[in-house]
Design goal:
There is one protein chain. With 430 residues, this protein is mainly alpha-helical. The protein has 17 helices and 4 strands. It has 2 domains: 228 residues, no CATH class; 121 residues, no CATH class. Helix content is 62%, strand content 3%. It is globular. It starts with a helix and ends with a helix. The N terminus is likely disordered.
Length: 430
Amino acid sequence: MKKVFYIIGLILIVQAAFGQHVVLDTVNDAYNNNLASAYSIKSKATLKSLDTIGDRKIRMAFKKMYEENSAEFLKEISDRKFVYHKEISPLITAIVDEIKAKNPAANFDDIQILLSLDESNNAYNMGENIVIINLPLVLNVADTYQLSYVICHEIAHQHLDHVFKALKSRLVKSESREVVEKTKQIKKIKYNQNTLATAEIKNFVYDRRKFSRINEHQADSLGFIYFKNAYPEQIIKSLEALLVLKEIDKESDSLVLEDYKKIFKNTSVKFQDNWLQTDILSSYNYQKNSKTWDVDSLRTHPDIDVRVDFLKENFKITDAEVKRFIDLKFATLKSNARYDEITMLYFLKEYGKSLYKTMILLKNDKENVLLKMKMFDNFSKIEAYRKKYILNRCLETESPNFTKSYNTYLSFVRNLTNSQLTQILKHYEY
């Protein structure tokens, strides 16, 4: 009974600390079951529709690829990767409803927008009228209008059937006589087979990137038309949304020496200077605002400046066409969702990244109950992984691709002794 009262008390403390904000719920069985059931029906219909592909080789290859992708998507649903967020999901629904209402000639009835627990700053169309928006992207756009353009852009990809067209193009090319003949020639050559094969793969990739650029221009244009119809006084936001993508992987906040001292000040854990010492990357020169971690170099956001200029030129967009405003409601949503990002990373078992984000927030909010709890939760997992000698599974190793702040943090965690880690856990235990 005492434990029950303790838990109830803890819940009340957290609610008092965050007001009406609901922490991200990753355990919604009804939502996931409905999603899986609906997709299973949809995937059967899609698989049947592929019978219309004339070429047998292409048809069989397409079906095999689709079945693999479909199984992976169902697994992601089972793994609770997609969530209904009590603040963000209704906003997305309201945006889609507005776009639908102002574009009556377009068919938006079957479009489904899913919010995904994925750490990458991205949104994408996976075909079958499904658009996926990763939680961090919502945190990085500035306002509702920028998010609306992202949604318009991804809906445009769907209406242009870019996903299935791209898959078919890839299969046709891989089955083409030219590719088959080149593969045979490579196999006949005694030396440098790997080099020649790599060159062919590179050519194939660049060809796909060219195809991707064409697709992006098309989706930008059709998405802009949808967006302009819905928000004629805010068309400049389409360009701003694209420019956000250009800077989206730059670290917006960091940890410095004084932050560590501030976090551990007046605690039972005495700060040690050697926590932040590392010689591994001393030869690298860090640039301000470099990427926190690697992103996919083939992500479909190439040549942002070219795409912005393309829209400006083709739709005669000028800076004069701006109605400035401050989106206070969206700013509040983003502020609340920062805590959801920590929960998301913890859910993804990215305990190192979750702890890093927690400490960035904690440096300016030392008495925050939820942040203290997350300090304990993440350090507990890190300790458990370290005891099993599998720390690299939840904590990245230093890299020149990371910012100085993130690399210093990685050194800090690895430099902690077992006794120091125990002290930290005791301090934050709840």
